[in-house]
Automatic annotation (TrEMBL):
This is Trafficking protein particle complex subunit 11. Involved in endoplasmic reticulum to Golgi apparatus trafficking at a very early stage. Residues 180-438 form the Trafficking protein particle complex subunit domain. It comes from Buteo japonicus. Belongs to the TRAPPC11 family. Residues 952-1011 form the Trafficking protein particle complex subunit 11 C-terminal domain. Its main location: Golgi. InterPro entries: TPC11, TRAPPC11_C.
Length: 1048
């Protein structure tokens, strides 16, 4: 048609490229040749309005316009020769700027092409002005569509959209009749497609959706001929599919879709109409095989194509609504029906559903995806592609099982069972039969009974009865396959993993306790419940554990005839009655090597059938449960419905819980462990912990071993500062361990008691947890079987560690005054106080002062607190007279260390002595230019002479000029030099002798000695008073009291 003509055949612009320079020597010949070419192009266009342009390809760069006179003249001559306007002649210089010239040419060509389409639009509009809406309704639609179409070619999409909308409205103003209904819908579909496409291009998707909804609302009831109703369904399906394609294409170009508005919904609706088309075709095209296709073919035309879209081939050019040839109309409808009969509807439906599933998967709509996959599976079933149908349905079933959609699941299972029957898939047929008999199935009892009988036939190696509503030809083919299955002696054992299905048998295994002692039999129960219509016999029940050695003890087996599998009797051990819970109890003796390990039920196997026929193994992982068990348990826990009372030997199935594992723990020990000690422990002492072990067993406890020490898992610093030993006489060092493992003790007779001392040394204060672990072996009999059990008992104790004493150290002068620094070569006193902080008496064995090389003792260093016993809060003090030689380091001098050897006071002589080393503080040493020392008695008497000798010693390398004076005191008279000036040589001393005469008794102030050093004015009397006494105690003279009484 005309659209193809304007899209592919008739150009808007023809460009003639000709190689010609302005300075061409043979200009006349070249000009004539170019004009001839243009004329040939015009003649080939046959008088159409197509624009013609000429491009001269030149080698030289042209001069700016107006400067090249020759170029201007020759250009005008060429335009006249070719009958072209000046705007249709272009120059393309082949130079470095070629890309820029090409872009300018492209824009010029675009303008010429637009001009062409503008002219075409004006031409159509001029025709439209002569139309009358009464008689030319169809032409109004045609002309409006042409205007929109040319606007779109002109790339004026806004005007194109506007005119397409007008054309669409005009289509629906046409008078519709059964004869022209298809043509109206076809045109409406074309124009709607254009409108929606342009809306998506303009990024207005809501307008596109609104237009499509309007289109569907207007057309969905325009069915046309009832005998060709499937055509309307096919047209509706095509509309939704096309819009879905447009929507998907727009998304690929950047449009954002959402869950509730995406192409999947339109593909789904297209599939729905395709299904409706299939149903209508099955009703309307159900002709007998004797009906043949009409001859001649009413669908053929003379030209092979239709004059107008949407018209019937046998009614071309007829605008009347009346049927001129009813017989021809009837043959045309028959030919369309027979053609529709050969259409593969299922393939169309599956393709559309597949597109929808892909979209819903993309936009995370899982339930929509599952719903459509079910429909795909059913379509594959109708298309007799049973393998694909089964694959899809099997995939979807998992979700419906887990969410508990029983009705939907039953419907899917029914279709899946038909597929498996028609393919003679034994395992699938058995699996779906088991599930359709179960509690998730909503089938009626008679249907379940039929499926159960078919299942038994399969287990007895017989062919089952056909499933209802299956295709007859497919049933016959499947019966042959089943016969082959019966005759083949292949694998007859089928294992079905129950956790992925909901079979008609439920299983729950439960250990009676979360843990069992190794000398007590392990007991557990297995509960089975059947939901099938009739009682059914199983042949074997066996339980598997993570330790397969126990499997042999947990097997129940019952032999019966093949015909007894459905016997209406509940007397057999392995017969399950519907709705009744059957309990099987097992017990076995655990192995001693499994102590401390978990015993788990790995699987429960229930075997249906026998090895002579076919055998189905229902396998539950763990302690039971299938695909619906977790949801049912949750519902039961939330339910407040009161359960009816059952007889004592029955239980409520919902009240049973699965306990699939238990722990094997050691035998209960029959020994006592007692710990005796005297807390708290003292730092670094050998603390004694006495462990008393007594056996209360009836037989000999063999191979008794003791583990004692710091409990593992505590702070790493505690481990490094804690040592444990069995020998308390030896002091521990850091090489000793914090835990002594497996100390052999020997055997213990019944009632025998054993004591074992453990010695602990704690190097830091704080709380520690200690472990005492006693293990032994003993023979015992369980269920008539003798086993060797390993028993153990452990005790823990927390012991606090404290300092045994506090040591205070201070430096004082010979006058017992506190010193913050000492003077070189001047004696001073070091005083130590040991204060007991222990709640137990301490014995100070001895002390030792170890001086650094920078310190010297004035007298012999001896301990004055040897073997002193200190109670809590008592203290022991010592005093040492020391001297420090002159040093160059003024920051501080190390004194040494003070070593205290002590032990806890105890009648036991073997308690080791602990040596605690106290590092003494550093002391600041200063030099002094003059040292004054006084020799005087310790006391005086009233009116008795008191000789006092002062020694002045020069401590410098210089001669000292010294001024000495004595200031009197009210309590003394004195004789001697009151004021004197001396010169003392370096390193020498000068003596001064005074006789003091006390006048009063008591603690009296001595006459003050003042010394002034001319070379050292900073030497003050306050510093002097540190070395010489300022007071003395004066006693009353003997006999003085009697004299005073006589005088009185």
């Amino acid at each position: 048609g005309w659209m193809n003509k304007h899209l592919n055949l008739v150009p808007a612009l023809v460009v003639v490229f000709y190689e010609l320079d302005w300075d061409e020597p043979q200009w006349k010949e070249k000009q004539s040749e170019c004009a001839t070419r243009v004329e040939i192009v015009r003649q080939s266009l046959q008088g159409r309005n197509t624009k013609v342009a000429v491009v001269l390809i030149q080698k030289k760069t042209p001069l700016p316009p107006g400067e090249d006179v020759i170029a201007s003249e020759r250009a005008a001559a060429l335009c006249n020769a070719c009958d072209l306007s000046g705007k249709s002649l272009f120059v393309l210089p082949h130079t470095d700027h070629l890309v820029g010239y090409i872009i300018r040419l492209e824009n010029a060509f675009y303008e010429h092409a637009q001009t062409y389409y503008y002219t075409e639009i004006r031409r159509v509009k001029s025709h439209k002005e002569f139309l009358n809406k009464t008689t030319h309704q169809l032409l109004f639609v045609r002309h409006q569509f042409k205007i929109a179409f040319f606007s779109e070619l002109k790339q004026d999409t806004q005007n194109a959209l506007k005119n397409y909308r007008t054309a669409y409205n005009l289509v629906h103003e046409l008078r519709a009749h059964e004869t022209n209904m298809l043509e109206i819908k076809t045109m409406a579909g074309f124009i709607n497609y254009k409108i929606c496409r342009l809306c998506f291009q303009h990024n207005t998707p809501l307008d596109a959706i609104a237009q499509f909804r309007k289109h569907i609302d207007l057309c969905k009831k325009k069915i046309g001929s009832a005998e060709l109703a499937f055509e309307h369904a096919a047209w509706m399906s095509k509309q939704f599919q096309a819009f879905g394609d447009l929507f998907d294409e727009a998304i690929k170009l950047g449009l954002t879709a959402i869950q509730t508005q995406n192409p999947g919904f339109y593909y789904q609706q297209a599939a729905y109409y395709a299904q409706e088309r299939k149903q209508l075709a099955s009703m309307l095209c159900n002709h007998d095989s004797s009906v043949i296709y009409p001859n001649p073919d009413p669908l053929e035309t003379q030209t092979g194509v239709l004059d107008f879209y949407g018209q019937r081939p046998w009614r071309q050019g007829i605008l009347s609504f009346d049927l001129s040839d009813p017989e021809k109309e009837k043959m045309g409808i028959l030919s369309l029906q027979l053609k529709e009969k050969n259409v593969l509807h299922s393939e169309l439906i599956i393709t559309l559903l597949s597109n929808a599933v892909a979209q819903f998967k993309k936009y995370k709509c899982p339930r929509m995806k599952s719903h459509l996959m079910v429909q795909m599976g059913e379509e594959y079933y109708y298309a007799k592609d049973y393998a694909k149908a089964l694959k899809l349905l099997d995939y979807v079933m998992c979700e419906y099982r887990s969410e508990g959609w029983c009705t939907l699941l039953t419907s899917i299972l029914t279709t899946a069972l038909k597929c498996s029957y028609l393919m003679a898939q034994l395992k699938d047929y058995i699996t779906y039969s088991l599930e359709l008999l179960g509690r998730a199935s909503t089938l009626k009892e008679d249907q379940k009974s039929r499926i159960e009988k078919n299942l038994i036939k399969v287990l007895m190696n017989e062919s089952p009865d056909p499933e209802p509503d299956c295709d007859t030809a497919a049933v016959k083919a499947s019966q042959k396959l089943w016969a082959d299955r019966v005759s083949l002696a292949g694998s007859n054992v089928f294992t079905i993993e129950v956790q992925d299905f909901i079979p008609f048998v439920q299983c729950k295994a439960k250990f009676l306790a979360p843990s069992f002692h190794v000398d007590v039999p392990v007991q557990f129960d297995v509960y089975l419940r059947a939901d099938c219509p009739h009682p059914i016999r199983f042949s074997k029940l066996c339980i598997s554990f993570n330790n397969q050695d126990y499997n042999q003890y947990c097997v129940v087996e019952e032999a019966y005839q093949k015909s007894d599998i459905l016997e209406q009797s509940s007397q057999g051990t392995m017969c399950l009655v519907p709705g009744k819970t059957r309990k099987f109890t097992f017990k076995f003796v655990a192995k001693t090597e499994d102590v401390g390990k978990k015993i788990e039920i790995t699987s429960v196997d229930l075997i249906l059938g026998s090895e002579s026929g076919r055998c189905v193994i229902l396998n539950w992982r763990g302690g039971g449960g299938d695909a619906a068990s977790s949801q049912e348990a949750l519902q039961a826990a939330r339910s407040f419905r009161r359960r009816p009372k059952l007889p004592d030997n029955e239980v409520h199935w919902d009240s049973l819980t699965i306990q699939a594992s238990t722990m094997i723990i050691s035998r209960v020990p029959n020994i006592s462990v007692q710990l005796r000690h005297e807390p708290p422990a003292l730092t670094n002492e050998m603390y004694c912990l006495i462990v008393t072990v007594q056996s209360h067993e009836d037989t000999v406890a063999k191979d008794v071993k003791l583990t004692a020490g710091l409990k593992p898992g505590q702070d790493a610093n505690l481990t490094q500062k804690t040592q444990v030993t069995l020998h308390g006489t030896d002091a521990c060092d850091e090489s000793f361990p914090a835990l002594l493992p497996d100390i052999p003790v020997g055997d213990l007779q019944p009632g025998e008691k054993l004591e074992k001392p453990i010695y602990i040394r704690c190097g830091t204060v704080g709380a520690r947890m200690f472990l005492v672990y006693v293990s032994y072996l003993i023979d015992t009999i369980v269920e008539g079987k003798e086993i060797l059990c390993k028993c153990h008992r452990d005790e823990t104790v927390t012991i606090e560690t404290v300092f045994p004493f506090d040591v205070a150290v201070k430096f004082v002068s010979t006058k017992l005054e506190h010193l913050d620094r000492v003077f070189a070569d001047i004696p001073f006193l070091l005083m130590t106080d040991i204060l007991s902080a222990s709640p137990w008496p301490l014995t100070i064995v001895t002390t030792q002062l170890q001086l650094s090389p920078s310190m010297t003792p004035v007298d012999q260093l001896e301990s004055y607190v040897e073997n002193v016993v200190l109670q809590t809060g008592e203290s022991a003090s010592e005093c040492f007279c020391l001297r420090c030689p002159p040093v160059t380091n003024a920051s501080g001098v190390a004194t040494g260390c003070y070593i205290i050897s002590w032990k806890r006071s105890s009648p036991v002589e073997s308690v080791p002595v602990v040596s605690t080393v106290i590092t003494l503080p550093h002391v600041i040493v200063e030099s002094i230019p003059l040292h004054v020392n006084a020799d005087l008695p310790s006391f005086g008497r009233v009116r008795e002479s008191l000789p006092v000798r002062y020694h002045l010693q020069n401590k410098t390398d210089l001669v000292q000029d010294v001024e000495v004076s004595v200031e009197p005191s009210d309590a003394f008279m004195f004789s001697g030099l009151k004021q004197i000036r001396l010169r003392i040589l370096p390193g020498t001393q000068q003596e001064m002798l005074y006789n003091f005469y006390p006048l009063m008794a008591g603690y009296q102030q001595l006459p003050s000695l003042h010394v002034n050093l001319l070379r050292f004015p900073n030497f003050t009397n306050q510093l002097l008073r540190r070395f010489i006494p300022t007071h003395i105690f004066v006693k009353v003279r003997l006999g003085m009291t009697e004299d005073n009484s006589i005088m009185s």
